[in-house]
TrEMBL record:
GO terms for cellular component: early endosome; late endosome; lysosomal membrane; membrane raft; neuron projection; trans-Golgi network. SUPFAM superfamilies: MFS general substrate transporter (SSF103473). This is Battenin. The gene is cln3. Keywords: Endosome, Glycoprotein, Lipoprotein, Lysosome, Membrane, Methylation, Phosphoprotein, Prenylation, Transmembrane, Transmembrane helix, Transport. It comes from Salvelinus namaycush (Lake trout). It is found in: Late endosome; Lysosome membrane.
Length: 440
């Protein structure tokens, strides 16, 4: 490829070559890609309680001191209704492969054409649903969750990089779609299982989602003429038309150096060097660290605390309360990830602070049990989702806006590690917390 036509050199406004119909198709296409990419991931987290409960009961032939202490149904031997294995186990299986991909792939993923990446995402998502549906042990289910993680991680990294070939408004479609995946996945799983469908049949029905991803990518998106669908993208050409409107990611250079750098940037072609990638990553830390803190706090809540926030006198069972916690969280994510067209918020650190307040509040509520009703937890979880979704979509919007054309594709891929790193740390933290409370 001699020239990267389609890289969003003026991403705030759609390019002249994109008609209204093409812009609508691309926005819708990215919305559906976000929905399909995150669907399996969300469903696995929503099904975490059922996976552990169902297969824990299948695998236990006689009670032991440890299983009695952590009995699923009655919480015998503990003040809390605990699963034999924390739902954080499902979270770790759902995020660690994603984290590994996001840490390593930005340095070599450009050698794998986008078309092949999408096919890998589809194949691993289908494998995930089939493994979890037909598994007879917890560990086979965990393997299925790992395949879902591979699909979501590779997909998120690839589709965020893909946005640089289109006008910047597709980021709003992607963000809204990923939020929609949360609501659709959690709500559909909750509704179908509560209606009497088994978790196995529910997961089999959701095999339609990977098929929808293929249709959205190959038949809905309108690609630029020179887009490298089945070829490696080794050479990058740059147009620096928006360099005056960018806030540089790196702060350790003065304005004169930045101007000289911008002038040189217009002429530079070729792939980024390893040293250049290191400098880009350094500049991304101001976005990646606050995003990671937001996701650490919210997934510490979701997979470490919500399982323990059980209200026996409420009209919903423990499993149903857990499912609706997850559903309301995803509703909040959907609303805030769809808000980019209305409001933009650059101070991601403020959102991380507020999310940490939520985590401390709910941790104290688990220990002291002072919250009177599940209704109040529903409100807090909805608010938690609003904070998390806003942090995600605004982080990638401002990275796209403030990164040079030549660096943008790599920067979008590399920054995607922020939320996954926070989620992974929260999963590791949730294990001892779960063990501690279940021992009380």
């Amino acid at each position: 490829m001699d020239e990267a036509v389609g890289v969003n050199a003026d991403p705030d406004m759609p390019s002249d070559s994109e008609g209204r119909s093409s812009r609508w198709r691309n926005w819708t296409g990215f919305w559906l890609l976000g929905l399909c990419n995150n669907f399996a991931y969300v469903v696995m987290l929503s099904a975490a309680h059922d996976i552990l409960k169902q297969q824990g009961s299948h695998n236990s032939t006689s009670p032991t001191p440890s299983t009695v202490a952590l009995d699923v149904e009655g919480g015998k031997g503990s003040h809390y209704d605990c699963s034999p294995v924390s739902t954080a186990a499902v979270l770790l299986a759902d995020i660690l492969p994603t984290l590994l991909i996001k840490f390593s792939a930005p340095f070599f993923i450009h050698k794998l054409p986008y078309g092949f990446r999408v096919l890998v995402c589809v194949a691993t998502a289908i494998t995930s649903f089939l493994l979890v549906s037909f598994s007879s042990t917890v560990w086979i289910s965990i393997l299925g969750v790992i395949f879902a993680s591979v699909s979501a991680g590779l997909g998120e990294l690839s589709f965020l990089s893909l946005t640089v070939f289109f006008s910047r408004d597709v980021l709003g479609g992607w963000g809204s779609g990923t939020g929609g995946a949360g609501v659709a996945g959690a709500l559909l799983y909750s509704a179908l299982t509560q209606a009497g469908l088994s978790p196995r049949n529910t997961l089999l029905i959701m095999l339609v989602v990977p098929v929808a991803m293929v249709i959205s990518y190959f038949f809905l998106l309108v690609f630029p003429p020179s887009f490298p669908q089945w070829k490696c993208r080794e050479v990058e050409s740059v147009r620096g038309g928006d360099s005056q409107n960018r806030r540089p990611l790196l702060d350790d250079t003065d304005e004169e150096e930045e101007r000289e750098k911008g002038a040189e940037e217009d002429k530079v072609t070729g792939p980024l060097t390893f040293i250049e990638k290191r400098h880009i990553i350094k500049g991304l830390l101001r976005f990646v660290v606050p995003l990671g803190v937001v996701y650490f706090a919210e997934y510490f809540i979701n997979q470490g605390l919500l399982e323990l926030l059980y209200f026996p006198n409420f009209y919903l069972s423990h499993a149903e309360q857990y499912r609706w916690y997850q559903t309301l969280y995803q509703v909040g994510v959907l609303v805030s990830r769809s808000s980019l067209c209305c409001v933009k918020f650059r101070r991601i650190w403020a959102l991380s602070l507020l999310q940490c307040v939520n985590a401390v509040l709910l941790l104290l509520s688990v220990y002291y049990q002072f919250l009177p009703s599940a209704w109040l937890v529903f409100v807090i979880v909805l608010y938690e989702g609003l904070l998390g979704g806003a942090a995600y979509v605004n982080t990638f919007y401002f990275i796209s806006k403030e990164t040079g054309d030549r660096q943008r594709e790599f920067a979008m891929a590399a920054a995607s590690v922020g939320d996954s790193l926070g989620i992974a740390i929260s999963g590791l933290t949730a294990f001892p917390v779960h063990r501690y409370f279940c021992s009380l």
